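Q: What structure does this chain adopt?
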Amino acid sequence: LNSCSYIDDEISEDVQYSQCGIPMRETKWVMGWKKIRYSWNSKVTRVERPYVIEWKSTSGLKNMGVIEFVEVDVDMNDENTEISSSDVVTEMTMVMKFVAPTLVAKLFRRSAKISTFMERRIVTPTLLKFRDIVMEKDLKMDVESIRHVLSVLDKE
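A:
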């Protein structure tokens, strides 16, 4: 993921709101690998805070998907657990569907490598960047806290 930004700096009067009051604004996404770049605009179609975010592209690279967040129970009696009782551990699951551009589809049509490529080179780095943005910008975690959480996750 190279970038993600709101298309309009301010919320317009005609923007729709989710049931939980979040404006469902349009965003511009730019994703790439090496010299290949794809971009698209998308709009959130459903938000059930804090459990679900669903979207659909409105232009550019055609895609749609849903991200689900589920709190995970952690055994605080396990001596290997390095998470405090006040920490919340969340599992994030993403389902994303792309309609591959003609050029990409032709390149990978005869190959079983497309899913591995998408997972390793596109989806995983995008999710990791998304996680880092959430931790830093939304959760206001400092660098040391982020490192601690990541080190705990790496051990699992």
